[in-house]
Amino acid sequence: MAKRIEATNVSAYYGGFKAIENITLTVEPKTVTALIGPSGCGKSTFLRSINRMHEVLPGARVEGNLTIDNQDIYDRDVDVTAVRRMIGMVFQRPNPFPTMSIFENVVAGLRLNGVKKKSILEEAAERALRSANLWDEVKDRLGKPGAGLSGGQQQRLCIARTIAVEPQVVLMDEPCSALDPISTLAIEDLMFQLKDQFTIVIVTHNMQQAARVSDRTAFFSIEKTGDPGRLIEYDNTQKIFSNPSVKKTEDYITGRFG
Amino acid sequence: MSTTVTTHRPRPTAQPTTLRARRLPRYAAPLIALAALLVAAGIVYGTGIGGPVLVVVVAALLYLAGLFAAANAVEGRRAARNRTWSALIHSAFVLAVLPLASVVWTLVSKGVERLDGNFFGTSMNNIGARDPNGGAYHAIVGTLEQVGIATLITVPLGILCAIYVVEYGRGRFSFAIRFFVDVMTGIPSIVSGLFVLAFWVLIVSPMVNDGRPGFSGFAAALALSVLMLPTVVRSTEEMLRLVPAPLREGAYALGVPKWKTILRVVLPTALPGIVTGVMLAIARAAGETAPVLLVAGGGAAINVNPFENNQSSLALFVYQQAGDASKYSPARAWTAALTLVALVLVLTIAAKLLARRNRLGR
Amino acid sequence: MGDTPQRSAHAGTGGITVATGHEWAAGASARVAETPGNPRTPVDNGMGGGGALPRARSFGAERAFRGLTLAAGTAVLVIIAAIAIFLIARAVPALRANTENFWTYEGWSPNEAQPKFGIGTLAFGTVLSSALALLIAVPVALGIALYLSHYAPRRLGTALGFLIDLLAAVPSVVFGLWGRDVFINPVRDFSAWLNEYFGWIPIFGGDGPFGRSIMLGSLVLAIMVLPIITSLSREVFLQTPTANEEAALALGATRWEMIRTAVLPYGRPGVIAAVMLGLGRALGETIALAMTLGITFGVSFNLIQNGGNTIAANIANAFGEANDTGRGALIASGLVLFTITLIVNITARVIIYRRREFTESAA
């Protein structure tokens, strides 16, 4: 259920602007990998290149090599939708479909894939909601609008929606930045459980969070505004937070910069 | 053997086994199009039921069916659906562009024929069926006066109404006003014409007019006001709502009374948006024919007094010339139409540019 | 971690910066403060002066202004009521004079000594032509709106969207003129073709002449309401939250599936409103139909033969030679049209308001 992602010399552009340059790193299966760094350093851009969401924006493109278990994600014959089904994504702000009920939100991905049978959908919805630690809170109101939940619940609903299609990898783009501390804690617990099944890559601004949840941490940075983001250091989380080998990482972690 | 038996149950997984997908080659779509065209031509000319237009129509249908079949076979159902809908959406665009382009083309090509000084400098007074001359001076005067008066009536009324709804109104009454403003948007122009006919032309104005019905430019302005009012109210309302609350609160905190805050802080902030809404309303009113036909009565001579006697307008001029039997009237109708469209478009474009420049919020 | 609140603080000011970009926002407080010269402002308005707070005045500028706006708001209701009242007042005498049944009589001769007129055929033509026009225009308009919002390259989409907005502003008399002088030719050919091969279907039957038919009228109407529906729907589609579109894409949706999952459900109330507005326009359209329909009286589903009439077109056509009863009869027909459009509009608004409450309470 989990796969290895390898990036080699990945650069990404918005039109003429180069957002990241020559990123090379490997994400191991069934781990949580955190991407940290100051604003605008290209963490999210890199994350979005992994499931080809980067190219959704007009004028955006990616260079270099990205593979998932040795299959080139950017190969010409690759079906983008297959990539995204394999690599799910949770966004910064909870974004349940506003017109759909909780149940419909969770099974949206399955329905897209042609699963129609009610019993299968119900089973999958329950499994996904349980995995997202949301089942007990919503089981009595599955028919209510998903947008009626609290922010933290909405985000867990979005996680349930993402894992309902049973992806190999789950990307999370600052999933807690719009949430209160209690909801944040709930989501962090969830990540801990989910890594038994999935490979997780998380972008976060919150260094404590990175230290708490991740196995490995990648530190991105930029020289100055307008420069492309680069990977400065990538190592075990413990190493990064206790004894980083690059001065810049240390500065950032100790709060002397960024 | 039995050890391998597990409770493994097939899960409803959406997971692809591979990222690669079979794709239709690039040349597939043009190839299908060509085949569709040939088959269509074969069918149509073989049976002799139509000409080239029918060939294109049949070919388009065949293309859609062929594309779906091919994509379904090679790429699967989802991709096939995606392709077919994409093709349908693109063809909807082409389908609509044709008549609209034809309207624009005819308007320009036929409209320039009488685009001369005489057209803008004379009226239709004493112009007979055999006269090639004659112009729309009187109609232009009418349009400008009627729309101008309507604007003078509508703008203060509309803005005040919007202020009430946004700033003061609470509860059911305010809701009712909002609701009926929305409903008013949908009142047909001919009904507003009939209303002014019944109210002003046939009942009120005869009282001061020796009992004669008072067709006039002013009556047309009244009818146009009814049409413009909801547009002005709605756009003002929207703009007022976009004014950030801290701005108001900042003024209240200084002890400025509410009415003054509205007049001096809120309104000026929303002004560009309001002007845009007003201009769009004017553009719509300028193009209205039916109410002017009913209550201004039309007329061939120049009448600069909007309060007395018949007046024409550009839109009405187009309608009347189009219905005229003279062989010279179509040219006059098209030139007037071109003038009218130019007037309306200048207003609309200016309004949109203004809106774009002063975008509040959003 | 100190990042998060900092970020949100920035996001917060971001909203206001837009306003402060306006020359007014920043200077607003200063401007207000520099108006003590206004005689209405009491000089000692209790600013830190101690003692009792000044009591609210029972009458003042505030009340006057408020009353003024209230009057303007009430004016809208008064106008709507006045429309109904005056139309009824003028219609009733004519209806009394009518010697035939107003609902069923097929014909319009109210100017004779024995006035005879009936609304049935006109109402039928109005509904038929509008329904046909919407049937043609709505799918095409939604297609274009989606093309402009989600398929065309952004620049092209914006430019074409602007063009569509402009076409929505073209007066109906221009479309009528075009329909009468230009569009009638292809429609006549098409009608003849339909009649030749599909004449066995009643709606395409008849022996001609063809051209100034329900079909021409409906097509012209469709072309007229097309830009309106397109322009409104496009705006709604563009407002779909990017977050929802990305959510659908991230689930592995194709472009069409993304549209079906995120864009169409989100835009539904807006689209309904656009269609209803288009319907309102079509029902009330006067001049374009007066110029393109054959103006006959009779209930017929035949689409291609010369003929067809609507309430509004009949008013424009018959108004010129109408006497007092004739005018009353036309006003009566206008009253029916007013009622029809009022029902359509109120239905549409109720749908939208309900829908809005649902999504607002959910959000």
UniProtKB/TrEMBL annotation, chain A:
Keyword Transport: yes
Top-level taxon of origin: Bacteria
Keywords: ATP-binding, Nucleotide-binding, Translocase, Transport
One BP term from GO: phosphate ion transmembrane transport
InterPro entries: AAA+_ATPase, ABC_transporter-like_ATP-bd, ABC_transporter-like_CS, P-loop_NTPase, PstB-like
Gene3D superfamilies assigned to the protein according to its UniProt record, in alphabetical order: P-loop containing nucleotide triphosphate hydrolases
Record NCBIfam families: 3a0107s01c2
Protein name, UniProt field: Phosphate ABC transporter ATP-binding protein
Source species of the chain: Micromonospora globispora
TrEMBL record, chain B:
Main subcellular localisation: membrane
Topology term for the membrane: Multi-pass membrane protein
GO MF annotation, one: phosphate transmembrane transporter activity
Keyword Membrane: yes
Keyword Cell membrane among record annotations: yes
Gene3D superfamilies: MetI-like
Domain ABC transmembrane type-1: 140-355
One term under GO cellular component: plasma membrane
Similarity annotation: Belongs to the binding-protein-dependent transport system permease family. CysTW subfamily.
NCBIfam families in the record: 3a0107s02c (TIGR00974)
Record's protein name: Phosphate transport system permease protein PstA
Taxonomic placement: Bacteria, Bacillati, Actinomycetota, Actinomycetes, Micromonosporales
TrEMBL record, chain C:
Listed GO CC annotations: plasma membrane
Protein's GO biological process: phosphate ion transport
Residue ranges, annotated region (Disordered): 29-49
InterPro entries in the record: MetI-like (IPR000515), MetI-like_sf (IPR035906), Phosphate_PstC (IPR011864), Phosphate_Transport_Permease (IPR051124)
Domain of life, source organism: Bacteria
Subcellular location: Cell membrane
Residues annotated as transmembrane: 67-89, 117-148, 160-178, 210-229, 286-304, 329-352
Domain ABC transmembrane type-1, residue spans: 123-348
Pfam families documented for this protein: BPD_transp_1
GO MF assignments: phosphate transmembrane transporter activity
UniProt membrane topology term: Multi-pass membrane protein
Alphabetically ordered keywords of this record: Cell membrane, Membrane, Phosphate transport, Transmembrane, Transmembrane helix, Transport
Family: Belongs to the binding-protein-dependent transport system permease family. CysTW subfamily.
Its job: Part of the binding-protein-dependent transport system for phosphate; probably responsible for the translocation of the substrate across the membrane.
PANTHER family noted in UniProt: PHOSPHATE TRANSPORT SYSTEM PERMEASE PROTEIN PST, PHOSPHATE TRANSPORT SYSTEM PERMEASE PROTEIN PSTC
Protein name in the entry: Phosphate transport system permease protein
Organism from which the protein derives: Micromonospora globispora
Lineage, highest ranks first: Bacteria, Bacillati, Actinomycetota, Actinomycetes, Micromonosporales
